[in-house]
Amino acid sequence: MSEDRVAESPIVALTDVRRDYALGAERVHALQGVTLDVQRGDYAAIVGPSGCGKSTLLNLIGVIDQPTSGTVAIAGNRVDAMSDREATQFRLRNIGFVFQRFYLLPILSALENVALPMAEAKVPKGVRTERAAELLKYVGLGNRERHRPSELSGGEQQRVAIARALANGPTLLLADEPTGELDARTGTEIIALFRRLNADGTTIIVVTHDEDLASAARRKVHMRDGKVVDA
Amino acid sequence: MRFALALASLIRHRARTALAVLGVAVAAAMLLDMVMLATGMRESFRELLLSRGFEIRLAPKGTLPFDTDATIPGVSAVIATLRMNPGILEISPVLGSSIHVLADGRDVSGSALGIDPKVQGDYELISGRDVTTPDAIVVNDYLLRQLGARIGDTLSVATGYDPQTRTYSGQRKLALTGLVKFIYGANDQSSSAMRRETLEGMRPEARDRASLFMIRVRNGGDAEQVRDWIDKQLPNVTAISIATAIAQVDERLSYFRQLALILGAVSLFVGFLLVTTLVTVSVNERAGEIAVMRAIGVSRVHVIEQIVLEGVAISLAGAVLGLGIGLITARYLNTILSAFPGLPMAIDFFLFQPRAAWSALGLLIASGIGAGVYPAWRAASLPIAESMRREAIA
Predict the structure, then answer these.
(1) Which helix (H) or strand (E) holds B206?
(2) Which of A19, A29, A38, B255 is the most exposed place for a label (fewest CB within 10 A)?
(3) A41-65+83-230 placed in CATH 3.40.50.300
(4) How far is A88 from chain B (nearest CA, A)?
(5) pLDDT, tens digit (0-9, with 9 covering 90-100), for B227-245
(6) How far apart are CA A109 and CA B55, in angstroms?
(7) Which H or E run contains B389?
(8) Is B298–A120 a contact, with Cβ atoms under 8 angstroms apart?
(9) Using the beta-carbon criterion (under 8 Å), do A59 and B385 form an inter-chain contact?
(10) B54 pLDDT above the threshold of 90
(11) Touching check for B298 and chain A: CB below 8 Å?
Protein backbone atom coordinates (compact mmCIF):
# COMPACT_ATOMS: atom_id res chain seq x y z
CA MET A 1 0.00 0.00 0.00
CA SER A 2 1.44 3.36 -1.04
CA GLU A 3 1.95 6.32 1.34
CA ASP A 4 -0.76 8.24 -0.50
CA ARG A 5 -3.26 5.44 -0.07
CA VAL A 6 -2.55 5.32 3.68
CA ALA A 7 -3.04 9.05 3.97
CA GLU A 8 -6.29 8.87 2.07
CA SER A 9 -7.76 5.84 3.84
CA PRO A 10 -10.56 6.75 6.27
CA ILE A 11 -9.76 6.50 9.99
CA VAL A 12 -13.22 5.00 10.54
CA ALA A 13 -14.78 2.73 7.94
CA LEU A 14 -18.09 0.95 8.62
CA THR A 15 -19.57 -1.28 5.95
CA ASP A 16 -23.15 -2.54 6.09
CA VAL A 17 -23.08 -2.74 9.89
CA ARG A 18 -26.04 -4.26 11.67
CA ARG A 19 -26.55 -4.58 15.40
CA ASP A 20 -29.47 -6.51 16.84
CA TYR A 21 -30.40 -6.87 20.50
CA ALA A 22 -32.60 -9.37 22.23
CA LEU A 23 -35.15 -7.50 24.32
CA GLY A 24 -37.11 -10.20 26.07
CA ALA A 25 -38.77 -12.24 23.34
CA GLU A 26 -38.35 -9.42 20.81
CA ARG A 27 -35.38 -8.61 18.63
CA VAL A 28 -34.45 -4.96 18.35
CA HIS A 29 -32.63 -3.89 15.18
CA ALA A 30 -30.59 -0.98 16.56
CA LEU A 31 -28.48 -0.56 13.43
CA GLN A 32 -29.71 -1.64 10.02
CA GLY A 33 -26.93 -1.66 7.48
CA VAL A 34 -24.86 1.42 8.34
CA THR A 35 -22.05 2.34 6.00
CA LEU A 36 -19.96 5.31 7.04
CA ASP A 37 -16.44 6.68 6.57
CA VAL A 38 -14.75 9.33 8.73
CA GLN A 39 -11.48 10.86 7.56
CA ARG A 40 -8.43 11.54 9.72
CA GLY A 41 -8.63 15.01 11.26
CA ASP A 42 -12.37 15.17 10.79
CA TYR A 43 -14.86 16.41 13.40
CA ALA A 44 -18.16 14.63 12.90
CA ALA A 45 -21.38 15.02 14.86
CA ILE A 46 -23.86 12.12 14.79
CA VAL A 47 -27.33 13.51 15.29
CA GLY A 48 -30.84 12.16 15.28
CA PRO A 49 -33.81 11.44 17.53
CA SER A 50 -33.53 9.34 20.69
CA GLY A 51 -33.36 5.60 19.98
CA CYS A 52 -32.15 6.03 16.39
CA GLY A 53 -28.94 4.09 17.12
CA LYS A 54 -26.42 6.94 17.66
CA SER A 55 -24.92 5.56 20.85
CA THR A 56 -24.91 2.02 19.47
CA LEU A 57 -22.94 3.28 16.49
CA LEU A 58 -20.49 5.10 18.78
CA ASN A 59 -20.03 1.96 20.89
CA LEU A 60 -19.14 -0.03 17.78
CA ILE A 61 -16.65 2.61 16.64
CA GLY A 62 -15.25 2.68 20.18
CA VAL A 63 -14.76 -1.13 20.18
CA ILE A 64 -16.82 -1.63 23.33
CA ASP A 65 -19.44 -3.54 21.37
CA GLN A 66 -19.39 -5.78 18.32
CA PRO A 67 -21.72 -5.75 15.32
CA THR A 68 -24.14 -8.56 14.53
CA SER A 69 -22.88 -8.33 10.94
CA GLY A 70 -20.85 -6.02 8.73
CA THR A 71 -17.31 -4.74 9.21
CA VAL A 72 -15.80 -2.00 11.33
CA ALA A 73 -12.26 -0.80 10.64
CA ILE A 74 -10.43 1.82 12.70
CA ALA A 75 -7.18 3.20 11.37
CA GLY A 76 -7.02 0.25 9.00
CA ASN A 77 -7.59 -2.39 11.72
CA ARG A 78 -10.62 -4.68 11.62
CA VAL A 79 -12.07 -4.31 15.10
CA ASP A 80 -15.41 -6.10 14.65
CA ALA A 81 -14.07 -9.54 15.55
CA MET A 82 -11.34 -8.72 18.06
CA SER A 83 -10.97 -10.78 21.21
CA ASP A 84 -11.63 -9.02 24.51
CA ARG A 85 -7.90 -8.69 25.19
CA GLU A 86 -7.18 -7.28 21.70
CA ALA A 87 -10.13 -4.87 21.93
CA THR A 88 -9.00 -3.65 25.37
CA GLN A 89 -5.46 -2.99 24.12
CA PHE A 90 -6.84 -1.30 21.03
CA ARG A 91 -9.07 1.02 23.06
CA LEU A 92 -6.20 1.82 25.41
CA ARG A 93 -3.87 2.92 22.58
CA ASN A 94 -6.26 4.29 19.98
CA ILE A 95 -9.57 5.46 21.43
CA GLY A 96 -10.36 8.30 23.83
CA PHE A 97 -13.82 8.27 25.42
CA VAL A 98 -15.78 11.19 26.84
CA PHE A 99 -19.13 10.38 28.46
CA GLN A 100 -22.17 12.44 29.29
CA ARG A 101 -21.75 11.72 33.01
CA PHE A 102 -17.96 12.23 33.09
CA TYR A 103 -17.41 8.94 34.99
CA LEU A 104 -14.30 10.01 36.79
CA LEU A 105 -13.14 7.72 39.59
CA PRO A 106 -14.26 9.58 42.72
CA ILE A 107 -11.44 8.13 44.82
CA LEU A 108 -8.72 9.62 42.60
CA SER A 109 -7.57 13.20 42.16
CA ALA A 110 -7.92 14.97 38.80
CA LEU A 111 -4.24 14.24 38.04
CA GLU A 112 -4.60 10.56 39.01
CA ASN A 113 -7.74 10.19 36.89
CA VAL A 114 -5.88 11.54 33.86
CA ALA A 115 -2.84 9.35 34.60
CA LEU A 116 -4.92 6.15 34.96
CA PRO A 117 -4.94 5.10 31.24
CA MET A 118 -1.21 5.83 31.07
CA ALA A 119 -0.58 3.62 34.12
CA GLU A 120 -2.53 0.89 32.35
CA ALA A 121 -0.34 1.44 29.28
CA LYS A 122 2.73 1.03 31.55
CA VAL A 123 3.98 4.58 31.02
CA PRO A 124 6.64 5.28 33.70
CA LYS A 125 5.25 7.17 36.69
CA GLY A 126 7.32 10.32 36.22
CA VAL A 127 6.39 10.57 32.55
CA ARG A 128 2.68 10.02 33.13
CA THR A 129 2.52 12.52 35.98
CA GLU A 130 4.20 15.14 33.81
CA ARG A 131 1.93 14.41 30.84
CA ALA A 132 -1.22 14.37 33.01
CA ALA A 133 -0.24 17.79 34.39
CA GLU A 134 0.31 19.09 30.83
CA LEU A 135 -3.08 17.77 29.72
CA LEU A 136 -4.82 19.37 32.68
CA LYS A 137 -3.14 22.68 31.74
CA TYR A 138 -4.28 22.17 28.14
CA VAL A 139 -7.92 21.86 29.25
CA GLY A 140 -7.51 24.85 31.58
CA LEU A 141 -7.29 23.00 34.90
CA GLY A 142 -3.62 23.43 35.74
CA ASN A 143 -4.57 24.61 39.22
CA ARG A 144 -6.92 21.70 39.97
CA GLU A 145 -4.52 18.74 39.84
CA ARG A 146 -5.02 17.60 43.44
CA HIS A 147 -8.77 18.10 43.53
CA ARG A 148 -11.13 15.13 43.75
CA PRO A 149 -14.05 15.03 41.28
CA SER A 150 -16.44 15.91 44.11
CA GLU A 151 -14.52 19.18 44.54
CA LEU A 152 -14.91 20.15 40.87
CA SER A 153 -17.84 21.67 38.97
CA GLY A 154 -19.57 19.71 36.20
CA GLY A 155 -17.68 21.60 33.48
CA GLU A 156 -14.37 21.02 35.26
CA GLN A 157 -15.12 17.31 35.65
CA GLN A 158 -15.88 17.05 31.94
CA ARG A 159 -12.60 18.79 31.11
CA VAL A 160 -10.75 16.29 33.34
CA ALA A 161 -12.59 13.51 31.45
CA ILE A 162 -11.42 15.04 28.14
CA ALA A 163 -7.84 15.21 29.42
CA ARG A 164 -8.13 11.55 30.47
CA ALA A 165 -9.41 10.66 26.99
CA LEU A 166 -6.30 12.28 25.47
CA ALA A 167 -3.86 10.59 27.88
CA ASN A 168 -2.42 7.95 25.55
CA GLY A 169 -2.53 10.18 22.43
CA PRO A 170 -5.54 8.43 20.84
CA THR A 171 -6.17 8.17 17.12
CA LEU A 172 -9.81 8.98 17.71
CA LEU A 173 -11.77 10.90 20.34
CA LEU A 174 -15.34 9.75 20.86
CA ALA A 175 -17.83 11.74 22.90
CA ASP A 176 -21.36 10.68 23.86
CA GLU A 177 -23.50 13.73 24.73
CA PRO A 178 -20.53 15.53 26.31
CA THR A 179 -22.58 18.64 27.04
CA GLY A 180 -25.70 16.78 28.14
CA GLU A 181 -25.19 17.41 31.86
CA LEU A 182 -23.78 20.92 31.59
CA ASP A 183 -25.37 24.37 31.65
CA ALA A 184 -25.26 26.48 28.49
CA ARG A 185 -22.19 28.55 29.45
CA THR A 186 -20.16 25.48 30.49
CA GLY A 187 -21.38 23.64 27.40
CA THR A 188 -20.02 26.48 25.25
CA GLU A 189 -16.61 26.12 26.94
CA ILE A 190 -16.55 22.40 26.15
CA ILE A 191 -17.55 23.08 22.53
CA ALA A 192 -14.67 25.54 22.27
CA LEU A 193 -12.32 22.96 23.73
CA PHE A 194 -13.41 20.37 21.14
CA ARG A 195 -12.81 22.91 18.37
CA ARG A 196 -9.33 23.57 19.69
CA LEU A 197 -8.61 19.84 19.96
CA ASN A 198 -9.73 19.30 16.37
CA ALA A 199 -7.71 22.26 15.18
CA ASP A 200 -4.68 20.66 16.89
CA GLY A 201 -5.20 17.50 14.81
CA THR A 202 -7.49 15.25 16.88
CA THR A 203 -10.17 13.33 14.97
CA ILE A 204 -13.44 13.71 16.88
CA ILE A 205 -16.81 11.98 16.63
CA VAL A 206 -19.57 13.22 18.92
CA VAL A 207 -23.07 11.93 19.47
CA THR A 208 -25.31 14.79 20.51
CA HIS A 209 -28.73 16.35 20.72
CA ASP A 210 -27.05 19.70 21.35
CA GLU A 211 -27.51 21.88 18.26
CA ASP A 212 -24.61 24.16 19.17
CA LEU A 213 -22.23 21.23 19.58
CA ALA A 214 -23.44 19.65 16.33
CA SER A 215 -23.05 22.97 14.49
CA ALA A 216 -19.47 23.28 15.73
CA ALA A 217 -18.59 20.03 13.94
CA ARG A 218 -17.27 20.10 10.39
CA ARG A 219 -19.70 17.39 9.37
CA LYS A 220 -23.10 16.15 10.54
CA VAL A 221 -24.21 12.54 10.21
CA HIS A 222 -27.99 12.24 10.46
CA MET A 223 -29.49 9.00 11.67
CA ARG A 224 -33.04 7.70 11.81
CA ASP A 225 -34.37 4.23 12.69
CA GLY A 226 -30.95 2.63 12.79
CA LYS A 227 -29.84 4.02 9.44
CA VAL A 228 -27.63 6.87 8.28
CA VAL A 229 -29.95 9.07 6.30
CA ASP A 230 -27.59 11.91 5.51
CA ALA A 231 -23.81 11.86 5.91
CA MET B 1 -1.87 1.53 41.29
CA ARG B 2 -4.29 -1.40 41.61
CA PHE B 3 -3.55 -1.80 45.31
CA ALA B 4 -4.03 1.95 45.79
CA LEU B 5 -7.33 1.77 43.88
CA ALA B 6 -8.52 -1.20 45.95
CA LEU B 7 -7.59 0.53 49.18
CA ALA B 8 -9.15 3.82 48.09
CA SER B 9 -12.32 1.97 47.13
CA LEU B 10 -12.54 0.46 50.63
CA ILE B 11 -11.80 3.78 52.31
CA ARG B 12 -14.59 5.37 50.26
CA HIS B 13 -17.14 3.41 52.33
CA ARG B 14 -15.38 3.61 55.67
CA ALA B 15 -18.26 2.52 57.90
CA ARG B 16 -19.18 -0.45 55.73
CA THR B 17 -15.56 -1.54 55.42
CA ALA B 18 -15.02 -1.18 59.17
CA LEU B 19 -18.08 -3.35 59.91
CA ALA B 20 -16.92 -5.97 57.42
CA VAL B 21 -13.42 -5.99 58.93
CA LEU B 22 -14.96 -6.36 62.38
CA GLY B 23 -17.15 -9.23 61.16
CA VAL B 24 -14.15 -10.99 59.64
CA ALA B 25 -12.18 -10.31 62.83
CA VAL B 26 -14.85 -12.08 64.92
CA ALA B 27 -14.84 -15.02 62.50
CA ALA B 28 -11.01 -15.02 62.53
CA ALA B 29 -10.91 -14.94 66.33
CA MET B 30 -13.34 -17.85 66.46
CA LEU B 31 -11.29 -19.75 63.88
CA LEU B 32 -8.04 -19.12 65.75
CA ASP B 33 -9.60 -20.16 69.06
CA MET B 34 -10.95 -23.33 67.52
CA VAL B 35 -7.57 -24.15 65.96
CA MET B 36 -5.91 -23.45 69.32
CA LEU B 37 -8.52 -25.59 71.08
CA ALA B 38 -8.29 -28.45 68.58
CA THR B 39 -4.55 -28.86 69.08
CA GLY B 40 -4.01 -27.06 72.37
CA MET B 41 -4.77 -29.82 74.88
CA ARG B 42 -2.82 -32.38 72.93
CA GLU B 43 0.27 -30.16 72.62
CA SER B 44 -0.06 -28.94 76.17
CA PHE B 45 -0.28 -32.54 77.40
CA ARG B 46 2.77 -33.50 75.34
CA GLU B 47 4.74 -30.56 76.69
CA LEU B 48 3.65 -31.50 80.19
CA LEU B 49 4.80 -35.10 79.80
CA LEU B 50 8.11 -34.01 78.31
CA SER B 51 8.69 -31.15 80.75
CA ARG B 52 10.95 -33.21 83.03
CA GLY B 53 12.47 -35.32 80.29
CA PHE B 54 10.92 -38.68 81.23
CA GLU B 55 9.82 -40.31 78.00
CA ILE B 56 8.42 -43.59 79.37
CA ARG B 57 6.08 -44.41 82.27
CA LEU B 58 5.48 -47.88 83.70
CA ALA B 59 2.12 -48.57 85.32
CA PRO B 60 0.59 -51.81 86.64
CA LYS B 61 -0.57 -53.99 83.73
CA GLY B 62 -3.74 -52.72 82.08
CA THR B 63 -3.86 -49.37 83.91
CA LEU B 64 -2.81 -45.80 83.36
CA PRO B 65 -0.53 -44.03 85.87
CA PHE B 66 -2.47 -43.44 89.11
CA ASP B 67 -5.69 -44.58 87.44
CA THR B 68 -6.17 -47.16 90.24
CA ASP B 69 -4.59 -47.98 93.61
CA ALA B 70 -2.79 -50.94 92.05
CA THR B 71 0.99 -51.09 92.49
CA ILE B 72 3.91 -52.86 90.84
CA PRO B 73 5.66 -55.32 93.17
CA GLY B 74 9.44 -55.88 93.34
CA VAL B 75 10.78 -52.38 92.78
CA SER B 76 14.38 -53.51 93.25
CA ALA B 77 14.00 -56.34 90.73
CA VAL B 78 12.32 -54.05 88.21
CA ILE B 79 15.12 -51.51 88.56
CA ALA B 80 17.73 -54.24 88.17
CA THR B 81 16.04 -55.44 84.98
CA LEU B 82 15.75 -51.92 83.59
CA ARG B 83 19.42 -51.20 84.28
CA MET B 84 20.29 -53.96 81.83
CA ASN B 85 19.16 -51.72 78.97
CA PRO B 86 21.98 -49.28 78.07
CA GLY B 87 19.46 -46.92 76.50
CA ILE B 88 17.93 -46.11 79.90
CA LEU B 89 19.54 -43.21 81.73
CA GLU B 90 17.42 -42.71 84.85
CA ILE B 91 14.68 -44.60 86.67
CA SER B 92 12.37 -42.87 89.10
CA PRO B 93 10.02 -45.17 91.07
CA VAL B 94 7.05 -43.40 92.60
CA LEU B 95 4.74 -44.74 95.28
CA GLY B 96 1.39 -43.00 95.70
CA SER B 97 -0.76 -42.94 98.80
CA SER B 98 -3.59 -41.04 100.37
CA ILE B 99 -2.67 -39.32 103.63
CA HIS B 100 -4.26 -37.57 106.59
CA VAL B 101 -2.49 -34.57 108.05
CA LEU B 102 -3.55 -33.76 111.59
CA ALA B 103 -3.29 -30.10 112.43
CA ASP B 104 -4.89 -28.32 115.41
CA GLY B 105 -7.29 -31.24 115.92
CA ARG B 106 -8.34 -31.13 112.27
CA ASP B 107 -7.90 -33.91 109.73
CA VAL B 108 -6.85 -32.59 106.34
CA SER B 109 -6.80 -35.37 103.77
CA GLY B 110 -4.65 -35.35 100.68
CA SER B 111 -2.22 -37.40 98.65
CA ALA B 112 1.45 -38.14 99.00
CA LEU B 113 4.08 -39.30 96.57
CA GLY B 114 7.02 -41.35 97.75
CA ILE B 115 9.95 -40.40 95.55
CA ASP B 116 13.70 -40.36 95.28
CA PRO B 117 14.54 -36.61 95.32
CA LYS B 118 17.61 -37.12 93.11
CA VAL B 119 15.61 -38.44 90.16
CA GLN B 120 12.07 -37.30 90.78
CA GLY B 121 10.08 -35.71 87.96
CA ASP B 122 6.85 -34.85 89.72
CA TYR B 123 7.37 -31.43 91.24
CA GLU B 124 9.42 -28.24 91.28
CA LEU B 125 10.70 -26.78 94.53
CA ILE B 126 9.40 -23.24 95.01
CA SER B 127 10.83 -22.43 98.45
CA GLY B 128 12.51 -24.18 101.37
CA ARG B 129 14.45 -27.42 100.82
CA ASP B 130 13.71 -30.74 99.23
CA VAL B 131 13.10 -34.01 101.11
CA THR B 132 16.79 -34.65 101.76
CA THR B 133 16.14 -36.40 105.11
CA PRO B 134 13.81 -39.31 105.95
CA ASP B 135 11.61 -37.16 108.22
CA ALA B 136 10.99 -34.43 105.63
CA ILE B 137 7.80 -33.64 103.74
CA VAL B 138 7.12 -31.01 101.06
CA VAL B 139 3.62 -29.79 100.22
CA ASN B 140 1.89 -27.74 97.57
CA ASP B 141 0.41 -24.29 98.12
CA TYR B 142 -3.17 -25.61 98.41
CA LEU B 143 -2.31 -28.06 101.21
CA LEU B 144 -0.19 -25.45 102.94
CA ARG B 145 -3.18 -23.10 103.00
CA GLN B 146 -5.53 -25.89 104.14
CA LEU B 147 -3.21 -26.63 107.04
CA GLY B 148 -2.43 -23.04 107.86
CA ALA B 149 1.14 -24.29 108.36
CA ARG B 150 4.56 -22.79 107.70
CA ILE B 151 7.83 -24.23 106.46
CA GLY B 152 9.67 -25.53 109.53
CA ASP B 153 6.50 -26.78 111.28
CA THR B 154 6.20 -30.40 112.32
CA LEU B 155 3.22 -32.24 110.91
CA SER B 156 1.55 -35.39 112.11
CA VAL B 157 0.90 -37.49 109.00
CA ALA B 158 -0.96 -40.81 108.75
CA THR B 159 -1.48 -43.09 105.73
CA GLY B 160 -4.70 -44.72 106.94
CA TYR B 161 -7.80 -44.09 109.04
CA ASP B 162 -10.34 -46.57 110.37
CA PRO B 163 -13.66 -44.76 110.83
CA GLN B 164 -15.09 -47.54 113.03
CA THR B 165 -12.31 -47.44 115.62
CA ARG B 166 -11.47 -43.84 114.78
CA THR B 167 -7.77 -44.64 114.76
CA TYR B 168 -5.02 -43.62 112.38
CA SER B 169 -2.45 -46.03 110.98
CA GLY B 170 1.03 -45.43 109.65
CA GLN B 171 1.28 -42.26 111.66
CA ARG B 172 4.54 -40.31 111.81
CA LYS B 173 5.84 -36.85 112.66
CA LEU B 174 7.40 -35.15 109.62
CA ALA B 175 9.14 -31.82 109.24
CA LEU B 176 7.63 -29.51 106.62
CA THR B 177 10.76 -28.48 104.70
CA GLY B 178 9.53 -26.97 101.49
CA LEU B 179 6.80 -25.59 99.28
CA VAL B 180 6.56 -27.28 95.87
CA LYS B 181 4.51 -27.13 92.70
CA PHE B 182 3.31 -30.50 91.40
CA ILE B 183 3.63 -30.63 87.64
CA TYR B 184 0.75 -33.05 87.12
CA GLY B 185 -1.34 -31.81 90.05
CA ALA B 186 -4.59 -29.90 89.99
CA ASN B 187 -5.09 -26.49 91.55
CA ASP B 188 -7.51 -27.77 94.15
CA GLN B 189 -5.59 -30.89 95.13
CA SER B 190 -3.85 -31.27 98.50
CA SER B 191 -0.57 -32.85 97.48
CA SER B 192 2.65 -33.69 99.25
CA ALA B 193 5.84 -35.66 98.71
CA MET B 194 8.32 -37.48 100.92
CA ARG B 195 11.09 -39.98 100.37
CA ARG B 196 9.84 -43.33 99.08
CA GLU B 197 11.40 -45.23 101.98
CA THR B 198 9.58 -42.90 104.39
CA LEU B 199 6.21 -43.62 102.77
CA GLU B 200 7.02 -47.36 102.62
CA GLY B 201 7.78 -47.21 106.35
CA MET B 202 4.34 -45.71 106.97
CA ARG B 203 2.70 -48.27 104.66
CA PRO B 204 4.36 -51.61 105.31
CA GLU B 205 2.01 -53.37 102.87
CA ALA B 206 3.50 -51.23 100.08
CA ARG B 207 7.10 -52.13 100.83
CA ASP B 208 9.16 -52.59 97.65
CA ARG B 209 6.16 -51.58 95.58
CA ALA B 210 5.67 -48.62 93.26
CA SER B 211 2.62 -47.07 91.68
CA LEU B 212 4.63 -45.79 88.75
CA PHE B 213 8.10 -45.79 87.26
CA MET B 214 9.28 -42.82 85.24
CA ILE B 215 12.10 -43.58 82.82
CA ARG B 216 14.48 -41.17 81.11
CA VAL B 217 16.07 -42.41 77.89
CA ARG B 218 19.63 -41.49 77.01
CA ASN B 219 20.14 -38.63 74.52
CA GLY B 220 19.77 -39.96 71.00
CA GLY B 221 18.06 -43.12 72.27
CA ASP B 222 14.85 -44.38 70.70
CA ALA B 223 12.09 -44.29 73.33
CA GLU B 224 9.85 -46.58 71.28
CA GLN B 225 12.56 -49.22 71.03
CA VAL B 226 13.12 -49.02 74.79
CA ARG B 227 9.37 -49.29 75.39
CA ASP B 228 9.18 -52.43 73.20
CA TRP B 229 12.12 -53.90 75.12
CA ILE B 230 10.41 -53.22 78.48
CA ASP B 231 7.18 -54.81 77.24
CA LYS B 232 9.10 -58.00 76.52
CA GLN B 233 11.19 -57.98 79.71
CA LEU B 234 8.45 -56.96 82.19
CA PRO B 235 5.16 -58.60 81.24
CA ASN B 236 3.41 -57.47 84.44
CA VAL B 237 3.66 -53.76 83.60
CA THR B 238 2.25 -51.45 80.95
CA ALA B 239 4.97 -49.31 79.38
CA ILE B 240 3.62 -46.02 78.08
CA SER B 241 5.76 -43.79 75.91
CA ILE B 242 4.89 -40.16 75.17
CA ALA B 243 3.67 -41.23 71.73
CA THR B 244 1.41 -43.89 73.27
CA ALA B 245 0.08 -41.44 75.84
CA ILE B 246 -0.58 -38.85 73.14
CA ALA B 247 -2.37 -41.48 71.05
CA GLN B 248 -4.57 -42.30 74.05
CA VAL B 249 -5.27 -38.60 74.64
CA ASP B 250 -6.03 -38.19 70.95
CA GLU B 251 -8.51 -41.03 71.15
CA ARG B 252 -10.23 -39.57 74.20
CA LEU B 253 -10.30 -36.04 72.71
CA SER B 254 -11.26 -36.96 69.16
CA TYR B 255 -14.91 -35.83 69.45
CA PHE B 256 -13.80 -32.65 71.16
CA ARG B 257 -11.30 -31.96 68.39
CA GLN B 258 -13.80 -32.70 65.64
CA LEU B 259 -16.26 -30.28 67.21
CA ALA B 260 -13.60 -27.59 67.35
CA LEU B 261 -12.66 -28.18 63.71
CA ILE B 262 -16.31 -28.04 62.59
CA LEU B 263 -16.87 -24.78 64.48
CA GLY B 264 -13.63 -23.42 62.99
CA ALA B 265 -14.78 -24.36 59.49
CA VAL B 266 -18.15 -22.67 60.12
CA SER B 267 -16.32 -19.50 61.22
CA LEU B 268 -14.20 -19.56 58.09
CA PHE B 269 -17.29 -20.01 55.92
CA VAL B 270 -19.10 -17.15 57.67
CA GLY B 271 -16.07 -14.90 57.08
CA PHE B 272 -15.98 -16.00 53.44
CA LEU B 273 -19.68 -15.22 52.94
CA LEU B 274 -19.31 -11.85 54.64
CA VAL B 275 -16.46 -10.77 52.36
CA THR B 276 -18.21 -12.14 49.26
CA THR B 277 -21.40 -10.26 50.11
CA LEU B 278 -19.62 -6.99 50.81
CA VAL B 279 -17.46 -7.10 47.68
CA THR B 280 -20.44 -8.17 45.53
CA VAL B 281 -22.53 -5.25 46.82
CA SER B 282 -19.60 -2.92 46.20
CA VAL B 283 -19.14 -4.24 42.65
CA ASN B 284 -22.85 -3.88 41.87
CA GLU B 285 -22.76 -0.28 43.05
CA ARG B 286 -19.76 0.42 40.85
CA ALA B 287 -20.94 -1.41 37.72
CA GLY B 288 -20.91 1.82 35.69
CA GLU B 289 -17.54 2.87 37.04
CA ILE B 290 -16.06 -0.54 36.23
CA ALA B 291 -17.57 -0.43 32.73
CA VAL B 292 -15.92 2.96 32.17
CA MET B 293 -12.58 1.63 33.39
CA ARG B 294 -12.90 -1.21 30.89
CA ALA B 295 -13.94 1.28 28.15
CA ILE B 296 -10.84 3.43 28.66
CA GLY B 297 -8.63 0.35 28.31
CA VAL B 298 -8.24 -1.19 31.77
CA SER B 299 -7.84 -4.91 31.18
CA ARG B 300 -10.18 -7.57 32.53
CA VAL B 301 -7.29 -9.12 34.51
CA HIS B 302 -6.55 -5.82 36.22
CA VAL B 303 -10.22 -5.34 37.17
CA ILE B 304 -10.19 -8.85 38.68
CA GLU B 305 -6.94 -8.14 40.52
CA GLN B 306 -8.30 -4.92 42.01
CA ILE B 307 -11.51 -6.52 43.26
CA VAL B 308 -9.75 -9.61 44.63
CA LEU B 309 -7.32 -7.26 46.39
CA GLU B 310 -10.30 -5.58 48.07
CA GLY B 311 -11.43 -8.96 49.43
CA VAL B 312 -7.91 -9.82 50.55
CA ALA B 313 -7.44 -6.43 52.22
CA ILE B 314 -10.65 -6.90 54.24
CA SER B 315 -9.64 -10.46 55.17
CA LEU B 316 -6.10 -9.44 56.10
CA ALA B 317 -7.19 -6.52 58.27
CA GLY B 318 -9.88 -8.72 59.86
CA ALA B 319 -7.39 -11.54 60.42
CA VAL B 320 -4.86 -9.29 62.15
CA LEU B 321 -7.56 -7.79 64.36
CA GLY B 322 -9.04 -11.26 64.92
CA LEU B 323 -5.64 -12.57 66.02
CA GLY B 324 -5.64 -10.09 68.89
CA ILE B 325 -9.29 -10.76 69.79
CA GLY B 326 -8.71 -14.52 69.52
CA LEU B 327 -5.72 -14.44 71.86
CA ILE B 328 -7.58 -12.37 74.45
CA THR B 329 -10.69 -14.58 74.37
CA ALA B 330 -8.54 -17.74 74.40
CA ARG B 331 -6.75 -16.54 77.51
CA TYR B 332 -10.05 -15.74 79.21
CA LEU B 333 -11.66 -19.06 78.23
CA ASN B 334 -8.52 -20.93 79.25
CA THR B 335 -8.75 -19.43 82.74
CA ILE B 336 -12.35 -20.62 83.03
CA LEU B 337 -11.71 -24.14 81.66
CA SER B 338 -8.47 -24.64 83.59
CA ALA B 339 -10.41 -24.13 86.82
CA PHE B 340 -12.20 -27.44 86.16
CA PRO B 341 -11.63 -29.68 89.21
CA GLY B 342 -9.04 -32.43 88.88
CA LEU B 343 -7.16 -31.04 85.91
CA PRO B 344 -3.38 -30.58 86.06
CA MET B 345 -2.55 -26.92 86.51
CA ALA B 346 -0.10 -27.03 83.62
CA ILE B 347 -2.72 -28.19 81.09
CA ASP B 348 -3.82 -25.47 78.69
CA PHE B 349 -6.96 -25.86 76.61
CA PHE B 350 -5.94 -23.08 74.25
CA LEU B 351 -2.30 -23.20 73.30
CA PHE B 352 -0.93 -20.54 70.97
CA GLN B 353 1.20 -22.16 68.35
CA PRO B 354 2.67 -19.86 65.70
CA ARG B 355 2.26 -22.56 63.07
CA ALA B 356 -1.45 -22.94 63.83
CA ALA B 357 -1.87 -19.14 63.84
CA TRP B 358 -0.13 -18.89 60.46
CA SER B 359 -2.35 -21.67 59.14
CA ALA B 360 -5.47 -19.83 60.32
CA LEU B 361 -4.15 -16.60 58.78
CA GLY B 362 -3.35 -18.41 55.53
CA LEU B 363 -6.82 -19.96 55.42
CA LEU B 364 -8.42 -16.55 55.95
CA ILE B 365 -6.36 -14.92 53.20
CA ALA B 366 -7.14 -17.84 50.89
CA SER B 367 -10.84 -17.43 51.72
CA GLY B 368 -10.45 -13.67 51.07
CA ILE B 369 -9.06 -14.44 47.62
CA GLY B 370 -11.87 -16.96 47.06
CA ALA B 371 -14.42 -14.44 48.30
CA GLY B 372 -13.21 -11.84 45.80
CA VAL B 373 -13.18 -14.22 42.84
CA TYR B 374 -16.94 -14.39 42.24
CA PRO B 375 -17.62 -10.62 42.35
CA ALA B 376 -14.39 -9.98 40.42
CA TRP B 377 -15.43 -12.42 37.73
CA ARG B 378 -18.87 -10.76 37.60
CA ALA B 379 -17.32 -7.31 37.33
CA ALA B 380 -14.84 -8.31 34.65
CA SER B 381 -17.55 -10.08 32.63
CA LEU B 382 -19.90 -7.09 32.53
CA PRO B 383 -20.76 -6.18 28.94
CA ILE B 384 -19.33 -2.65 28.75
CA ALA B 385 -21.88 -1.01 26.48
CA GLU B 386 -24.85 -2.68 28.22
CA SER B 387 -23.60 -1.72 31.70
CA MET B 388 -23.14 1.89 30.67
CA ARG B 389 -26.57 1.98 29.07
CA ARG B 390 -28.16 0.60 32.28
CA GLU B 391 -26.19 3.07 34.36
CA ALA B 392 -27.40 5.93 32.17
CA ILE B 393 -31.03 4.77 32.49
CA ALA B 394 -30.65 4.38 36.27
Answers:
(1) none
(2) B255
(3) yes
(4) 5
(5) 999 999 998 899 988 888 8
(6) 67
(7) helix B384-393
(8) yes
(9) yes
(10) no
(11) yes
